[in-house]
Design goal:
Elements lengths: L2 H17 L1 H10 L4 H15 L15 H23 L6 H25 L8 H27 L3 E5 L2 H4 L3 H10 L8 H8 L6 E8 L2 E10 L4 E8 L8 H12 L4 E5 L6 H12 L3 E2 L5 E3 L9 E7 L6 H12 L4
Parallel strand pairs: 4-5
Antiparallel strand pairs: 1-2, 2-3, 3-4, 5-8, 6-8, 7-8
Helix pairs in contact: 3-4, 4-5, 4-6, 5-6
């Protein structure tokens, strides 16, 4: 097989790998923070700031090949940065992340040109290189933004009942759960698993699946006249893509009665206000005039002042509170 044939086979394998979105999602979730950006950044530094980064060869390149190389490597930097910012689970929109990635990559390209000139490497800062860097950064950021938007808009997000074989797949989400909720606002993980798999306990777990891969979960209680959501978790690496909204909207649609949840009051912090707004966009109404307190999950833990929210304004918050305290928190 000649080298062009080998290249073709390798390209086909790479394309098939890209089609396995479950594998890609797993890689994105488990890779260290900003690892892709770091790898590309170090590669660029090696290629542009080392005196002889590559061995001498007699390959004849076409005119302007160096500009194409600038376009590609700074496009790669912008793409890696976009992916890492989105993986970080920040509250930025994908469009803002794309702008940040393109701007940062372009500025880095300008900095590299001046560093090459200052290091007296026999290279001078060229305006054409800066243009190539900027075009590569902007083009790549735009492409990654469009891919991200298309994939997550058309992704198959659904809630399914938790079954025993899913428990092993929730190890990463267990860590997310422990980080997302302070000790006073979370149930022991073993208790969750035991209750969720019990045939007699009213508490169940619904797993949020993205193209067959667990990316979140909802623990909830069937309490007769309403369904209470105790905890709602989405992997931070996949937030801000509408996955949580799709999952919660589907969950509420499938519920046979009004859905109730607790939330931190909007005035307790920036993130609290955003969460309340998120639930309101999905049809939840706040009982702001009712002073609700979440009872402690265990000995030595404090009570937490929260607000009750429901998909039905006709619910009585006093009755909701009484049932939660008695059944969920097992206190009269």
């Amino acid at each position: 097989m000649n080298r062009f044939g080998a290249f073709g086979v390798t390209s086909l394998k790479f394309f098939l790998l890209l089609r396995d979105m479950k594998l890609i999602t797993s890689i994105l979730r488990k890779s260290p923070p900003y690892i892709f950006t770091l790898v590309v950044l170090l590669s660029i530094c090696w290629l542009t700031l080392m005196p002889k980064p590559l061995p001498d060869n007699n390959i004849q390149l076409f005119p302007g090949a160096d500009k194409v190389a600038h376009f590609i490597i700074f496009g790669a930097f912008a793409g890696a940065l976009f992916i890492d910012i989105m993986r970080a689970g920040t509250k930025r929109h994908a469009g803002i992340c794309a702008i940040i990635a393109a701007f940062t990559s372009s500025c880095f390209g300008i900095a590299v040109e001046f560093l090459q000139m200052a290091m007296d490497m026999g290279r001078s800062a060229e305006f054409a290189d800066v243009v190539a860097d900027t075009l590569g950064a902007v083009s790549s950021a735009l492409i990654f933004y469009l891919i991200d938007r298309h994939y997550f808009r058309n992704s198959n997000t659904r809630c399914v009942n938790c079954i025993p074989q899913y428990i092993g797949d929730l190890r990463d989400l267990k860590r997310v759960y422990l980080k997302s909720f302070p000790a006073a606002e979370r149930r022991d993980w073993k208790d969750i698993v035991t209750r969720a798999q019990s045939d007699t306990c009213p508490m169940k777990m619904s797993v949020v699946m993205l193209d067959g891969n667990p990316v979140g979960f909802i623990t909830f209680w069937n309490l007769g006249d309403f369904t209470y959501i105790e905890h709602f978790v989405i992997d931070p690496a996949l937030r801000n893509r509408g996955i949580g909204a799709k999952a919660l909207r589907q969950f509420c649609t499938q519920a046979d009665n009004p859905v109730v949840l607790e939330a931190e009051p909007a005035g307790t912090g920036k993130n609290a206000a955003r969460r309340v707004q998120f639930y309101e966009r999905l049809g939840f109404k706040s009982f702001n005039d009712y002073n609700y307190v979440q009872l402690p999950y265990g000995i030595g833990l404090p009570s937490v002042p929260l607000i009750l929210m429901s998909t039905s304004e006709e619910m009585n918050p006093e009755e909701i509170s009484s049932k939660l305290h008695k059944i969920v928190y097992e206190q009269a």
